[in-house]
Amino acid sequence: MSNIKNALITIFLLALGLAELTACSTTVNPAYGESRSQLLLIPEETINEAQAEAYEEDKNEAGDNLNSDAKFTKRVKSISEKLINVATQIRPESKNWNWEVNTITDDTVNAYCRSGGKIIVYTGLNDALNLNDDELAFVIGHEIAHALKEHGRESASQEIVNDGLASAVSLLGDEDYASIASTITTVGILLPYSREMELEADNLGLEIIHKAGFDPKAALSVTKKLKEFGDENDTENDDDSGANSLVNSMLSTHPDSADRLKALNDTITKHNLVKTSTSTTQRTKSTNLVFIVP
Distance of alpha carbon 64 from its chain centroid, rounded? Predict the structure, then answer.
């Protein structure tokens, strides 16, 4: 028993050592919050290509619901263009991404930006939360921040470490210990990183919307709305359909709402962030931006 336990500990430490050895410099140096090294084992091109394929599948599945709400689509495009202009100045190489912005008319309460700048916002997000432009900007800015920080690529790299550890432990011949190892890795590597990623996306999202001329305090109000919606959703909808995936993810890997609100408020207060009348960055014309118009 002790030998197996020691083997588990050794393998776990080796996994952590691998993470340290293969980590690279942070993809973005944020104005707010601390920089950190990231585990990026997978080439950026590989992740971007896979995410672009998944994005095309999402659009195809949407069918006639893709950009069918003309008013909402125009609003999302206008907000996103301002945010992308800032994003490409925060991370200049993202000017070469084939940015794309679309909406889907669906009750799903969600928005995302896949690696490489592929954005989709569901009408259900706005319908459920009644977002003003500043609040919608923070949601989109938060998702853009995930892409700029390459959190998808980092998560996939962490999965490689997780799978490698589970496979190594399985050689010990006991499925129970393989399961334990997987759990240890998920708790010790994946979830803390995921929570850290969400806080990073909040801070970078604040930077993006502030420089784009939106109200940073909208981050507080939209987080409160998400919390309230999540509480109602827990009571009224207990299924696992994933229809309200933005809220569901907040309640699982996302930081607790109270902690998140405190962190956001601390950042806003520390840096004296207030809404500016115009964008604080120069407009660029070199960004590859695609809008699909029905």
Answer: 27
Report pTM: 0.77
- Tell me how far CA of residue 243 lies from CA of 22, 201, 237, 256, 257, in angstroms: 36, 22, 10, 20, 20
163-171 long-range Cβ contacts below 8 angstroms, 24+ apart: 164/15, 164/18, 165/11, 165/12, 165/15, 168/11, 169/7, 169/8, 169/11
Range of the domain at 250: 2-291
Contact between residue 188 and residue 196 where contact means Cβ atoms under 8 Å apart? no
For the residues of 159-201, what is the DSSP string, one character each?
HHHHHHHHHHHHTTS-HHHHHHHHHHHIIIIIHHHHHHHHHHH
Residue of 103, 80, 81 whose CA lies nearest to 294: 103
> What backbone phi and psi angles, to 5 degrees, belong to 276?
-100, 155
Q: How far is CA 291 from CA 54, 209, 254, in A?
A: 18, 20, 30
Cα 234 from chain centre: 22
Which tens digits make up the pLDDT trace of 169-226?
Answer: 555 555 555 555 555 445 444 444 477 888 888 999 999 999 999 999 999 999 999 8
The number of distinct structural domains making up the chain is: 1
Question: Sign (positive/negative) of CA torsion 127, 129, 132, 137?
Answer: negative
